[in-house]
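Session log. Operator J.P. requested a structure for one protein chain; no other inputs attached. Running the standard single-chain path with token output.
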Amino acid sequence: MKVQTRLYLTNTLIFSIIFITMMLIIVGLYYHNSKQSTYNILKKTSYLTALFYLKEDEMNKAEFAKIKKQFEEEASNQFYQFYNDKNIVEFGIKTPAIKDDIINKIRSVGNLAFEDNGFYCYGIYYEDNQGNFVVVAKEKTDILFQKIQSLIIIVCIALLISILLAFILSRWIAKKAYEPFSKTIRQVNNITTENLNVQIESPQTKDELDDLINTFNNLLSRISETFVIQQNFVKYVSHEFKTPLAAMLGNLEVFSLKDRSPEEYQQVSNKLIIQIHQLEDILNTLMIISDLRVITDADTSFRIDELTWQIIEKISKSYPNSKILVNINITPNKVHLLSINADSTQILIALYNIIENAVKYSIGKTVDIGISEENGKLSVTITDKGIGIPLEQLKDISKPFYRANNTNIIQGSGIGLSIALRILEKNDINYQITSEVNQGTKVTLIF
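Structure written below.
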């Protein structure tokens, strides 16, 4: 059963239960109040009847005329009985007679409301100079039951109409409430692997559906990003492996055309060793990417300044024309900030990639490295004066194999910075990257 159907059926059931409960309460209250009202009228009738039959000799004509008029208006159509001391009906209808024990109880308590033989009855004990009587006024219970029956019919009709209206309104409300879900489902069904870049339109309902759509859109973005990464990964691997493999194959094919001297064998071997190391570096890079997805427990204590000098030494060998200036601004009482507890190999890879990028894209210009204390934390900044990164592309630089469109003139794979940023995130190191085209880039790390 669909949620929409279940929603309006449940609402209809709940409203029906509420309506039925209210109707039963209304009928019950009406019956109780009507019965009480009947007894009150019978009480008044019993006293009025007693005055009319027993007090004529004690009143003047004017007073009795008033009593007679009131009796004719209110009590002449009622059933009433006067019981003498022998419990025999002396005035009024003879049957049905009331049992002696009830009459005696009325004499004992003074007045009593009760039901007897299909009548609502109210009896009073009335003392007079003509004798002491028990006066009982009666009304058939059928009269009240007819009223209740009419009320029940009206209530049942109103109940059926109310349930029908509740069903129609609940169905309409459920349809309106479910409309954003239906729209979202249609949009999701239109998503294919060819258009993962689409986003589900948010209904702006500010509720759980809105949260769900935003979460789903974030998931779509990550899936789309993964597809892009996979495509770039294939291009990267095919390109990076193809170059050394083609060179190795070419060298071997040329070398096999004729006999070679030992020196020539040595030269080819050296070339093959270099190319094999290139392949090994590529595999190591892929292993690093894979390893960063796994939580390791290889934290060691090391000094960030010593690690920085090691990196500069390595970069200087690869880039002999590089210019790197280091400024350490740490006071003696804050020297403990230089010691870091983390995976030194991962931090080495991250810092190496960031500093190498700064050197590579500076194209011979000076790179400044600052190590200082900021709000009680260690801060490392790497600033270059290179080609910079376009502002609109800055958000994508953390994606593996992504390169800005102004880097074509410089060789690279787009993998180094993404590895570095992933290492920083894994080791809870905050970073901020600011850049301006043709002005340079600044990377700030907070340990």
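Operator note: The chain is about 55% helix and 20% strand.
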